[in-house]
């Protein structure tokens, strides 16, 4: 992983959701879904993003694609600031950045034939004729392992794995450079999940795609990612190569997370790092380090001071006072 | 010997708009006290339906068409609703997958916890309240007194699932059925819940039927494993055997398809295709369209359950070949 | 190469039907709904072929033969207080009632869908539109109709307008509700992620997916609309005489409940059957469109 | 504060009762509420019904002959054509104790005429120039021109004499004070109104102890209540309900020819309605007999504008009207091409007007016209016809003075175009005859003038008469001595219950 | 909760303001001049002019509206053109009857509706369900005035069980109660039917919910599953229907009051519209709208009581 070229550069990105209430329905507080995230994504890599439910993984992905309005920070795509572009100008970049969604069924319009759904992309972004569009769609379908005759079918006529293939076809239709896979395989059965992961890998090799692979399944992430980002309550807590994260995790949260994964090896005695309590809700955000309420090694400092995002070794970042 | 639970040749049919479909086909298994049986299989393989049938809680349009379910020797199939009701939540308890929806949103935690105590143990309201407070503490909920008066939506997912567990254990059942109790939870929370169930099982000596599709979870908690595919049991055995010496091609495929956190270089193997739906009638073995080892016989004749060894069986024609090989070797 | 294996031939053949045909097939399983469909079809036939089905004009008076009961020779359903043939009036009335029902619902739909889509999709418009809808809603229907008719004058067209306006907020609310939930669906996000415009998303993706509640509601509204014309006629604000509109017919027949009850009862039964029909079809549709109802009892 | 339904219900079941223990009470069902209770400030028939029981006029029409005869007045004389000297009965007091005298009469009439007060029936006394008190019990009315219908006008309910004290110190529109046989007790607006017997009445006190007016908007509900005995008395029976009422065992029906006339009127300022031929065609095309036959006996077929019970009627008028002749109508319509344009019949959506409109529409269609009906709410109808937006309209005139001048002048005299002359009829000769009928005091001469005017208008056909009304009442058989007069008014003074 | 109430009442003021403006304008645009109605056919143009002057109808419409609003702010709703009675007073005497009627019919509707809907849902597709559905549908299909007349003929005239007219007696007396029965049924039937249908479908949904399965798994008796666990959840959408339906119910009082000779606000209102009694129309319409909004506010509060997930703060 030498001469990495940066595709996406994110600095101090913030995305807040307002919590409304009170007599006048004013904003009372904010859910800090993404809170001061800085990172770089390299061309052709797969960056896995892990963390527990509600930690802001999806929000981060959507914000990067301009589907969610950011509250602060900057996003550079191929060196260009795209964070504040108007809807119109953004269209050009939208072609270059696509998304694959978690629920393959929910992400397809149930009333639209698959062929038409795919064709629509070309209607929006190209001026191809009808027959040309059809041709492109046929090619796409075969590309993701579906058949041409699937063109006229409705989403409910497909199995979960097939639907996810359609989602992938949609994402690669315009030859993007970046694809955000938001829990793209989580809803699938293991056997199908393996099929899709393999397909994603094939496509990446073929088209030199960059993936942001969001998942809570650490096994899958390990399998597919080059680098891994660990998030907790809207904050990045650790970032490193897959190797660094899985074999040499620094942050106590990463460690706990890794130790909690049930291993398919019977009889293995677990050395689980037990965490106390549940995730605090994003709306009553803890002061200091967001993890201090559950952290086994928290100190007084952690309660007060937000830890810095430090590079511990080459490419291995962590936010913790105790390391 | 009397088993805690013995299920024999269970067949469950559903009446649907298209006719009758069999969701569970000829399933048999047994469970002893203090033992954990994991039922694994992909979505739609009939895990939930099997476990629901144990309590007589099948959806309205579902029926046990054949087979028997014996709890401590007592036949449950065909038992009167009222008799079953007395068992439910008392001798046999159940925990469901979705802690979000499995609790009634309009009643307090306390009310829902006290219900089985009042129904089955005739406790007074105060006694029930005291007892439920203790139960909450037992499942590791801080401030149980306060939580009793809260509503489900005020609790996090992990807490809710703990409440469900407390509820299921209220009357100290001898059999606990857990249908994917941790699937909706985060891994760190899942770990806490799995530990909890394990501890309580030890304490109470219950038998546990645990439904999951996560092989990792199976490895962690199971004594015995039953692998289901498209309504049928394809392989059963104790946990070690299943993981270390799986016989059925499906089981093997399943294990190989799970990405391993600890293995960087693992090549994921693929089972092509996807599971048939319950009402697809397939000649021969239900797995043969996806089986890399399918032989002619597999397409024509349904394989019987074949014993691999004591406590290990597989529903696959390959077994016959193997057995045959073995027998020829030994003889 | 891979997944096709399991979708056996049977499965493919079975799933060929489009969404509407499937729904219709499910609908046909519901006996009450079929009954409703039959009534509606009959009504449509009556309306279309009215001139061929009667031997008297609907307004043809015969003052020498008034208030004849059901089964009178030459007048199967008797005659009214002007000696007009009840059967003819009922048949021609089907035309009017159908048109009134359909046009009020159509106008209400267009208004309600537009406002509902806008309110549901654009947060900024939501408050304004929905407060305005509340305003309309807070007027009891009859009162609103009375005000509109008092302003525009009594005529069937104005009745239609009044009832349409009155049904707008109902549709708007339903559509808005569906839009709010559909908007959160991933496929809308997916459309946004491929850069589809708001108009495209609203019209091609959100609207078609609100159809189920809209259809169900529209069928039921149809009944209400016909009933409302009856109430307005009772208050003297309905169709102009001698228009054989059913509501006006019952309202006028009300005075003869003693001498010739059939004058009010026959159109009453006609209205009841129609509303009943539309409602059971609506109910049936709701069930047919509900995925949970895919099971047979 | 009103009578409870149950008491009446038990009392009303005359069929069961032989005990003779009937309460001396009566409940009248009215479809609308009174607008007010002051004769000066109201103009509607429901208010009149109450006012007639509480107040009295100087003269009243004899229900049989329709001739004015003195009531509060004792006698009168006319020393010259423009002077009316009226002698009043002595020793009468209003319910509030105020003495009835010439001052009270002057006060009442001055108020009625006062433009500030804007009394709706001010026109009744409009010809009177001055009202003078000659002595305690004599008033002198002076007119600038002779005023023929003077006594009829003074018999009008709205010319009832009110207590000046009560009017000045209170609101007689809510708490009426008159000299009549009944004293106002309570008014629960929109629901009921009650009167009690005037114990100190100047004549023999009434038999009834209590009278209640109950508002029942739906006539069919009212009939049901009459049947169950919740009310005992109804009037103005719609023709569609008469057969039901007549079938009731416990109810007696009284019907009489009345002064009310219902007509079809043309807008004489619009084409082609200003053409005599068109109007004749319509007149020939309408078969009034067929219409009246639908009224179940509650209408009189007579095509004279001045009806048989109205002063100025002559049999000849009826006979000279255009007779039903469909062929003639068709012929005229065809010759003039009248069938090409659509004719709109405007009708208020109440009473029998809708029925007229529907039948006439059918008859005119038969004759070859294209006809539409436009029904309107009463308020909108009044507005539209007043300013002449209509083409043909249906309307009626109650004529509460039963005098022909009171019919022809407001409705067909050109003075009243833009007011009550909705036909916008303007005929010099006719105007003159009507004026003469008004300024003549000699009743015989008046009669002739009215007849001549009537004949002229029938010939000219700005109006085509549909029917002359019947006045009707239905009451419980236990009620005796009830008399309704041809203008539709009734007094409960002599009514008893047995 | 208090926040909700304050916010809603604030909205109510705005709403009433909007409604009053619309009503005011539409009454002025509408054909039919109050003066002609007061003056009657015989009044001359100058009589009418005098009447208009007295009523202030000659001022520019906006000035009239401003005057009206000024009055309303001070609690003065003007005087009836017809009877010169203060509008507030006229409404006050009739309001109790309308409230009695509306409340009684709502009670009838809720009791019958929920009961029928529950039975339908519990015995889905049985003859009981079909019968109850049929009745419910018939209920929405019958015109109010027709039903009212029929009930009178049957129960008052033929059977003589119940009185016909008015609501003169207090409802807690036997007589007053009897007076309420027929009008309440007449007015309540339509709403009962709607509630029944809503209750049925909502109940059907609820009994398939996971938490019902949980309750069964706990061994809860069938009866308490339905009446305790399911009912309260099923009520949530039903309550909204009740609130929305209340508007229709208020509209229905117009006809019911007419048929049963009840002296209520509905009748006051149609009479006022018919006679172009502007201040009375304004007053009654505002009142009805206010009642509607307040009832819906109450519905929202009940909503929060039934469903703990809803909080308005
Ligand atoms: N539209 C929204 N409005 C308000 N809050 C939101 C919205 N979307 C997400 N949130 C909140 O923002 C936080 C982060 O949400 P996000 O969906 O990004 O989490 P996630 O890590 O993707 O979780 P999951 O694994 O459950 O998908 C959560 O607390 C969530 O409740
Ligand atoms: N009420 C029902 N009517 C008809 N078919 C049903 C019904 N419930 C379940 N099934 C069918 O029975 C089969 C087995 O379902 P079951 O819920 O047991 O699967 P599962 O193994 O628990 O899957 P998951 O992992 O998704 O929970 C499925 O194919 C399903 O479609
Ligand atoms: Mg997410
Ligand atoms: Mg399951």
Automatic annotation (TrEMBL), chain A:
GO terms for biological process: peptide transport; transmembrane transport. Residues 8-258 form the ABC transporter domain. GO terms for molecular function: ATP binding; ATP hydrolysis activity. It comes from Oceanobacillus bengalensis. InterPro entries: AAA+_ATPase, ABC_transp_ATP-bind, ABC_transporter-like_ATP-bd, ABC_transporter-like_CS, Oligopep_ABC_C, P-loop_NTPase. Belongs to the ABC transporter superfamily. Signal peptide: none annotated. Keywords: ATP-binding, Nucleotide-binding, Transport. This is Dipeptide ABC transporter ATP-binding protein.
UniProtKB/TrEMBL annotation, chain B:
It is found in: Cell membrane. Residues 5-255 form the ABC transporter domain. This is ABC transporter ATP-binding protein. SUPFAM superfamilies: P-loop containing nucleoside triphosphate hydrolases. GO terms for molecular function: ATP binding; ATP hydrolysis activity. The keyword Transport applies. The keyword RNA-binding does not apply. Keywords: ATP-binding, Cell inner membrane, Cell membrane, Membrane, Nucleotide-binding, Translocase, Transport. It holds the Pfam family ABC_tran. InterPro entries: AAA+_ATPase, ABC_Ni/Peptide_Import, ABC_transporter-like_ATP-bd, ABC_transporter-like_CS, Oligopep_ABC_C, P-loop_NTPase.
Automatic annotation (TrEMBL), chain C:
GO terms for biological process: transmembrane transport. Keywords: Cell membrane, Membrane, Transmembrane, Transmembrane helix, Transport. One of its GO terms (cellular component) is plasma membrane. It is a multi-pass membrane protein. Its main location: membrane. It is found in: Cell membrane. InterPro entries: BP-dependent_transpt_permease (IPR050366), MetI-like (IPR000515), MetI-like_sf (IPR035906), OppC_N (IPR025966). It holds the Pfam family BPD_transp_1. The chain crosses the membrane at residues 32-54, 96-120, 132-150, 260-281. Belongs to the binding-protein-dependent transport system permease family. This is ABC transporter permease. The lineage of its organism: Bacteria, Bacillati, Bacillota, Bacilli, Bacillales.
From TrEMBL, chain E:
Keywords: Cell membrane, Ion transport, Membrane, Nickel, Nickel transport, Transmembrane, Transmembrane helix, Transport. It is a multi-pass membrane protein. The keyword ATP-binding does not apply. GO terms for cellular component: plasma membrane. InterPro entries: BPD_transp_1_N, MetI-like, MetI-like_sf, Opp2B. The keyword ATP-binding does not apply. Gene3D superfamilies: MetI-like (1.10.3720.10). The chain crosses the membrane at residues 12-30, 101-122, 134-157, 177-196, 285-306. Signal peptide: none annotated. One of its GO terms (molecular function) is nickel cation transmembrane transporter activity. It is found in: Cell membrane. Residues 95-303 form the ABC transmembrane type-1 domain. The complex is composed of two ATP-binding proteins (NikD and NikE), two transmembrane proteins (NikB and NikC) and a solute-binding protein (NikA). Belongs to the binding-protein-dependent transport system permease family. OppBC subfamily. PANTHER family: DIPEPTIDE TRANSPORT SYSTEM PERMEASE PROTEIN DPPB-RELATED. This is Nickel import system permease protein NikB. It comes from Oceanobacillus bengalensis.
């Amino acid at each position: 992983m030498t001469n990495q070229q940066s595709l996406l550069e994110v600095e101090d990105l913030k995305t807040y959701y307002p919590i409304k209430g009170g007599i006048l329905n004013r904003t009372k507080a904010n859910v800090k879904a993404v809170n001061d995230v800085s990172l770089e994504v390299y061309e052709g890599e797969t960056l896995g993003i892990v963390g527990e439910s509600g930690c802001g993984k999806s929000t981060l992905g959507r914000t990067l694609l301009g589907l969610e309005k950011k509250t602060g920070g900057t996003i550079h795509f191929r060196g260009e600031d795209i964070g504040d572009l108007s809807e119109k100008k953004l269209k050009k970049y939208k072609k270059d950045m696509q998304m694959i969604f978690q629920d393959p069924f929910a992400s397809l319009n149930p009333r639209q034939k698959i062929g038409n759904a795919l064709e629509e992309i070309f209607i929006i972004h190209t001026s191809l004729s009808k027959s040309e569009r059809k041709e492109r769609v046929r090619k796409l379908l075969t590309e993701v392992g579906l058949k041409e005759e699937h063109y006229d079918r409705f989403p409910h006529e497909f199995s979960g794995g097939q639907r996810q293939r359609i989602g992938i076809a949609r994402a690669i239709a315009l030859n993007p450079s970046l694809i955000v896979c938001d829990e793209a395989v989580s809803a699938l059965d293991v056997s199908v999940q393996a099929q899709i992961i393999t397909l994603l890998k094939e496509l990446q090799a073929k088209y030199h795609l960059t993936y942001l692979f969001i998942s809570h399944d650490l096994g899958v992430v390990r399998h597919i990612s080059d680098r891994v980002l660990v998030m907790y309550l809207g904050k990045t807590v650790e970032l490193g190569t897959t190797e660094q994260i899985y074999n040499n995790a620094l942050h106590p949260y990463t460690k706990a997370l890794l130790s909690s994964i049930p291993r398919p090896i019977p009889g293995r005695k677990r050395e689980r790092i037990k965490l106390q309590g549940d995730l605090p809700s994003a709306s009553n955000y803890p002061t200091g380090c967001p993890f201090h309420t559950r952290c086994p090694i928290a100190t007084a400092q952690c309660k007060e001071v937000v830890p810095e995002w430090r590079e511990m070794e080459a490419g291995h970042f962590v936010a913790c006072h105790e390391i | 010997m009397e088993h805690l639970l013995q299920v024999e040749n269970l067949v469950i049919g559903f009446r649907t708009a298209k006719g009758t479909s069999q969701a569970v086909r000829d399933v048999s298994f047994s469970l002893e006290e203090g033992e954990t049986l994991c039922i694994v299989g992909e979505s739609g393989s009939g895990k939930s339906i099997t476990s629901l049938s144990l309590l007589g809680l099948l959806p309205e349009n579902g029926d046990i068409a054949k087979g028997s379910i014996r709890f401590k020797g007592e036949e449950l199939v065909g038992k009167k609703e009222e008799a079953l009701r007395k068992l439910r939540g008392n001798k046999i308890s159940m925990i469901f997958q979705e802690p979000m929806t499995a609790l009634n949103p309009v009643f307090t935690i306390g009310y829902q916890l006290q219900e089985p105590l009042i129904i089955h143990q005739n406790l007074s309201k105060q006694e029930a309240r005291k007892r439920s407070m203790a139960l909450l503490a037992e499942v590791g909920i801080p401030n149980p007194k306060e939580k009793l008066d809260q509503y489900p939506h005020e609790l996090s997912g992990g807490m809710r699932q703990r409440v469900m567990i407390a509820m299921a254990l209220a009357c100290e059942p001898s059999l606990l059925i857990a249908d994917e109790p941790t699937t909706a939870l985060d891994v760190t929370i899942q770990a806490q819940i799995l530990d909890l169930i394990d501890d309580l099982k030890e304490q109470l000596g219950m038998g546990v039927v645990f439904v999951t599709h996560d092989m990792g979870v199976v490895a962690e908690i199971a004594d015995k494993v039953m692998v289901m595919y498209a309504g049928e049991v394809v392989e059963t055995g104790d946990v070690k055997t299943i993981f270390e010496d799986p016989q059925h091609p499906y089981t093997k495929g399943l294990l190989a398809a799970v990405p391993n956190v600890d293995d960087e270089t693992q090549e994921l193997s693929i089972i092509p295709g996807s599971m048939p739906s319950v009402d697809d009638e397939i000649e021969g073995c239900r797995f043969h369209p996806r089986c890399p080892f399918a032989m002619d016989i597999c397409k024509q004749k349904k394989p019987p359950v074949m014993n691999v060894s004591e406590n290990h069986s597989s529903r696959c024609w390959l077994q016959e070949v193997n057995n045959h090989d073995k027998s020829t070797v030994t003889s | 190469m891979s997944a096709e294996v399991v979708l056996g031939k049977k499965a493919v053949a079975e799933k060929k039907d489009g969404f509407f045909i499937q729904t219709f097939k499910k609908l046909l399983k519901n006996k009450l709904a079929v009954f409703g469909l039959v009534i509606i079809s009959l009504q449509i036939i009556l309306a279309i072929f009215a001139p061929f089905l009667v031997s008297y004009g609907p307004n043809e008076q015969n003052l020498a033969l008034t208030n004849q009961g059901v089964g009178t020779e030459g007048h199967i359903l008797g005659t009214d207080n002007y000696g007009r043939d009840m059967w003819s009036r009922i048949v021609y009335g089907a035309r009017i009632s159908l048109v009134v029902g359909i046009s009020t619902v159509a106008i209400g739909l267009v208004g309600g869908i537009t406002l509902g889509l806008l309110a549901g999709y654009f947060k900024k418009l939501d408050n304004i539109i929905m407060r305005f809808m509340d305003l309309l809603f807070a007027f009891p229907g009859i009162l609103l109709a009375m005000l509109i008719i008092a302003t525009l004058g009594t005529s069937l067209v104005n009745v239609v307008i009044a009832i349409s306006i009155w049904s707008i907020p109902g549709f708007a609310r339903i559509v808005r509700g569906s839009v709010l939930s559909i908007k959160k669906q991933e496929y809308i996000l997916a459309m946004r992620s491929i850069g589809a415009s708001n108009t495209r998303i609203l019209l091609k993706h959100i609207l078609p997916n609100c159809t189920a509640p809209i259809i169900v509601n529209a069928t039921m509204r149809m009944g209400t609309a016909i009933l409302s014309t009856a109430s307005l006629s009772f208050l003297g604000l309905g169709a102009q005489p001698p228009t054989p509109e059913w509501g006006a017919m019952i309202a006028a027949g009300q005075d003869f409940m003693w001498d010739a009850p059939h004058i009010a009862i026959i159109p009453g039964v006609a209205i009841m059957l129609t509303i009943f029909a539309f409602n059971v079809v609506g109910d049936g549709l709701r069930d047919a469109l509900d995925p949970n109802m895919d099971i047979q009892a | 504060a009103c009578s409870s339904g149950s008491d009446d219900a038990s009392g009303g079941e005359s069929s069961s009762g032989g005990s003779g223990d009937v309460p001396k009470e009566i409940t009248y069902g009215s479809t609308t509420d009174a607008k007010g209770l002051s004769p000066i400030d109201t103009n509607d028939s429901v208010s009149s019904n109450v006012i007639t029981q509480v107040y009295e006029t100087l003269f009243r029409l004899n229900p049989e002959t329709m001739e004015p005869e003195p009531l509060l007045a004792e006698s009168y004389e006319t020393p010259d054509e423009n002077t009316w000297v009226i002698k009043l009965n002595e020793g009468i007091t209003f319910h509030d104790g105020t003495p009835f005298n010439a001052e009270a009469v002057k006060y009442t009439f001055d108020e009625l005429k006062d433009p500030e007060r804007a009394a709706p029936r001010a026109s009744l006394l409009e010809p009177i120039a001055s009202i003078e008190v000659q002595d305690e019990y004599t008033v002198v009315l002076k007119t600038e021109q002779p005023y023929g219908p003077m006594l009829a006008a003074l018999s009008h309910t709205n010319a009832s004499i009110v207590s000046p004290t009560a009017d000045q110190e209170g609101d007689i529109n809510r708490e009426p004070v008159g000299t009549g046989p009944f004293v106002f007790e309570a008014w629960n607006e929109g629901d009921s109104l009650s009167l009690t017997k005037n114990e100190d009445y100047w004549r023999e006190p009434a038999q009834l102890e209590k009278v209640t007016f109950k508002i029942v908007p739906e006539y069919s509900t009212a009939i049901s209540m009459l049947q169950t005995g919740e009310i005992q008395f109804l009037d103005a029976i719609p023709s569609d309900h008469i057969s039901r009422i007549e079938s009731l065992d416990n109810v007696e029906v009284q019907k009489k020819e009345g002064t009310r006339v219902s007509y079809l009127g043309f807008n004489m300022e619009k084409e082609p309605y200003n053409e005599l031929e068109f109007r004749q065609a319509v007149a020939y095309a309408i078969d009034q007999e067929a219409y009246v036959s639908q009224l179940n006996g509650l209408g009189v077929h007579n095509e004279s504008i001045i009806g048989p019970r109205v002063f100025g009627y002559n049999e000849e008028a009826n006979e000279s009207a255009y007779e039903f002749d469909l062929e003639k109508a068709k012929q005229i319509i065809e010759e003039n091409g009248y069938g090409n344009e659509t004719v709109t019949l405007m009708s208020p959506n109440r009473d029998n007007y809708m029925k007229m409109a529907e039948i006439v529409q059918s008859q005119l269609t038969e004759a070859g016209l294209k006809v539409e009906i436009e029904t309107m709410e009463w308020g909108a109808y009044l507005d539209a016809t007043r300013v002449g937006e209509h083409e043909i309209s249906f309307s009626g005139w109650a004529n509460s003075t039963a005098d022909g001048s009171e019919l022809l002048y407001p409705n067909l005299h050109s003075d009243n175009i833009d007011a009550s002359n909705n036909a916008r009829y303007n005929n010099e000769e006719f105007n003159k005859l009507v004026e003469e009928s008004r300024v003549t005091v000699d009743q015989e001469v008046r009669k002739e003038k009215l007849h001549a005017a009537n004949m002229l208008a029938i010939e000219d056909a700005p109006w085509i008469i549909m029917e002359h009304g019947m006045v009707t009442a239905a009451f419980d058989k236990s009620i005796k001595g009830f008399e309704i007069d041809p203008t539709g008014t009734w007094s409960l003074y002599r009514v008893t219950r047995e | 909760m208090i926040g909700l109430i304050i916010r809603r009442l604030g909205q109510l003021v705005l709403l009433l303001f909007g409604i009053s403006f619309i009503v005011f304008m539409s009454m002025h645009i509408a054909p039919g001049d109050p003066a002609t109605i007061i003056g009657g056919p015989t009044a001359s143009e100058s009589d009418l002019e005098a009447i208009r002057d007295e009523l202030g109808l000659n001022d520019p419409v906006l000035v009239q509206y401003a005057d009206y609003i000024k009055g309303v702010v001070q609690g003065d709703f003007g005087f009836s053109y017809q009877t010169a009675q203060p509008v507030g007073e006229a409404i006050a005497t009739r309001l109790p009857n309308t409230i009695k009627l509306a409340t009684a019919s709502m009670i009838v509707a809720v009791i019958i509706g929920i009961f029928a809907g529950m039975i339908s849902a519990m015995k889905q597709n049985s003859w009981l369900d079909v019968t109850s559905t049929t009745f419910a549908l018939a209920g929405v299909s019958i015109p109010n005035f027709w039903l009212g007349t029929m009930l009178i003929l049957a129960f008052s005239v033929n059977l003589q069980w119940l009185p016909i007219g008015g609501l003169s007696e207090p409802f807690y007396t036997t007589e007053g109660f009897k007076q309420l029965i027929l009008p309440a049924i007449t007015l309540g039937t339509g709403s009962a039917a709607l509630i029944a249908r809503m209750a049925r479908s909502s109940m059907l949904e609820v009994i398939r919910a996971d938490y019902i399965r949980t309750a069964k798994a706990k061994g809860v008796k069938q009866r308490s599953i339905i009446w305790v666990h399911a009912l309260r959840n099923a009520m949530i959408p039903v309550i909204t229907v009740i609130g929305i339906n209340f508007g229709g119910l208020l509209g229905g009082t117009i006809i019911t009051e007419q048929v049963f000779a009840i002296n209520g606000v509905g009748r006051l209102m149609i009479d006022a519209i018919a006679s172009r009694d502007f201040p009375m129309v304004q007053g009654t319409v505002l009142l009805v709208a206010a009642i509607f909004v307040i009832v819906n506010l109450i519905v929202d509060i009940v909503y929060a009581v039934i469903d703990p997930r809803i909080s308005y703060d």
